């Protein structure tokens, strides 16, 4: 799991985009991360964020956290994947 400080950095960075839900899933949520693991962040925004901004957010979070971030929109999750993500999900907001 990432530290409370990094969790707060994620929430603080995303606030201007008005997220309605933010969570971590995958190896970091399970406390099974390795040095080469990326940080999977699930997010749902109040308003649609265009693709260019979405990629920019992902890149900025990678720089801020010092961990490769994989940002996933809740709306883009395939129904078959949802149970696996929800099982691990650690809600930040």
TrEMBL record:
All residue ranges annotated as the Polymerase nucleotidyl transferase domain in the record: 9-87
InterPro entries, per the entry: NT_sf, Polymerase_NTP_transf_dom, Type-VII_TA_antitoxin
Keywords: ATP-binding, Magnesium, Metal-binding, Nucleotide-binding, Nucleotidyltransferase, Toxin-antitoxin system, Transferase
Molecular function per GO: ATP binding; metal ion binding; nucleotidyltransferase activity
Cofactor names: Mg(2+)
Family: Belongs to the MntA antitoxin family.
The protein's name: Nucleotidyltransferase
Organism: Runella rosea
